[in-house]
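Regression test attached.
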Amino acid sequence: MSDHRPNLRRVPVITGVGCVSPLGCGLSQTRQGLLGSRDGISAVKLFSTGGFLCQTAGQVADSVEDLALGVTRKAARWPRAARLLLPAMAEALEERPGFLPEVVIAGTTSGGMDFGEDFFRGLGGRRSGKEDRRLVRGYLPQQPVIEALGVWRFQAPVRVVSNACASGTNALCLAAGLVRSGEVESAMAIGFDALAELVFAGFDCLRASTTEKCRPFDSARSGLVLGEGAACFLIENAVRAGDRGLGRVAGWGLANDNHHLTQPNPSGIGPRLAMERALADAGWTTDTLDYINAHGTGTPFNDSSEAAAIRHVAPQVPVSSTKGMTGHALGAAGAIEAAFCLLAMQGGFLPANINLRESDLGLDIVANSVRLADCRRVLSNSFGFGGANASIALEVTP
Amino acid sequence: MRLSVLGRGCVSSLGREWAGVRAALSNGVKPELRSLPDASDPARAGAYPAMTPQAPSGSAGRLRRSSSISYFACAAAAEALGGLSSEATALVFASSNGAVSYTRKFFAEVMDGKPGSPLLFPETVYNAAPSHVAAMLGIDSSVLALVGDASAGLDALATARTLLGSGSANQCLVVAAEELDWIACEGYARWGLTLRGTSGAVLSEGGTALLVGPSADGAGILRIHPGRTVPKSEPAAGAFRAVIEEVTEGVVPDLAVVSCSGGRVGRLEEAVIRGLFPEIRVLAPKRNTGEAFAASSLLQCALAVDEVERGTSRAALVSVFGWNRQVGAAVVAGGRK
């Protein structure tokens, strides 16, 4: 008789989570923000938006600076992305004392971009060599992670995934994959990105940003607003995790859509393949799926493509995009939204898709306020430029 | 899992394809140092530009507006794949600076109060180059872009091994590419890492690609060390030595292909390896090609595989000490006889 019990050394379990987003610094504030369906979008404060069409973004509260400096005073000299990441990392590690990552997989699109911008602006001026070194080194995407890990004296290698807006989910998938393959017993997965002027200008010039509210899946949606934040996950095999599990990475699916550098194939083939592969990898059928956290940027192209994919894969499953509340945190988005999914499963609610007035996309959208529901199995989607599509299957620990 | 190298491709300052680069390295050819155009400080913008590759067939549409990093990636990937099918192929890409020339141009436009070109911005994302490779070759499964210092090339190989082990692909194209721009030269010069007098690295560019699959006979990339971050507070030599000792456990390499590109860290790397293996032969290809980060570390691997295949090495060590203090290593060996 064959033994169908899973090999616990190959089951990736989440044993610690930290999250910083426009909904709050830490899981407690984040939970309250989700339950209150809070709109975290406001006028941009970090730089002048004078020349841009879009004027708003989802920004992390100023209190994050105090949290970062509370962990280490050195953070004052780090890029903003590192100062967002540090409190998220500290929160995750607080839940799991003694955790030692064998590898760190980080997702980001722009790392320490603010340092790159400062370096460029100051090229013609007088600046000390020490300051130059600090800016150049800090700009490189892996350096914010290395700085933060140094606080705990971790020496694990840092692998940075920069797959556009799918980066955070890719990082989670890769970290879980390393645990599942048996290559490591413990891994840290991170998604982080800070609001940066260059990136803001980029989405503005593409006319991807909206001048009004971000309305994912709405018939009159007109674009995204950018966001920022960080989330950190500690992932261990089930033997090491013992009874500490907050949730489990059940599977994932990746797919590449070669249609266009910035636009998804209207058929939704990329998202569809990613979701189908995630479900197959998890061994789930859609009748056991409780919720889909959509990528849902609020752009006309993304939402129609993703909706087509969801209608094909799991038309009956409740869907929401949380980006109306947070903005699109790019490389951090997938990790932040995975944290939202864990909170939803723990709290028995489905997060709201705010700013929705009317939708003709044929989905069961969790419109404008949370829906109380037994939520045990979810898919979280992230898609990005270059045709990068990723979907991750998360479930409460049995 | 051991990885078999099924194909190689390379564009560098020494040649437009692998055979040319390999021959130039064997002959000790060194490219001419050139000052990059438009530099704010020409004295800091000396570099080894890559030879211009042939645009691979099928790439024309997507590469029309891309920067040179995508050309390098596509040319190297097409050469590595050769005539093989891209079905069930994953793609892992690695770079350090990405499309740095377009990033600099785009931000300059924004700083000038212009709206910024919608043609430039999408090409600045780190995964633009692999997306062009995937489109050219019709790859629709896992496509991942990694960013890091030179060690990212070995990280990409390790990631390929994970993807192959998961069964999500039968083979994997591992591609690393880099492009030059004066802003990168200026930045690394101010950091103190590039050539000053007789010490320091010369920046370079290009692309290297390895097509890898599970090894049937054990020949190929035997081990890839997971790597390590060396804290600033820790002596680099000790940390590096520990990585080399771990990756070579039970193996005595007769060849080391090191990442030394002319600076202090490279000298340390070579000294540690010679201390552990006094009889070892050492090759440092970056002294000829220049520093192209992950593209260079994949070139180190390609060279090690070639030496083992030619029978001029039984077991070769590849070591990388990156500028962000990320250390990595791999061992290449022949098959079971």
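Expected vs. actual: identical. Chain A has a mean pLDDT of 95.
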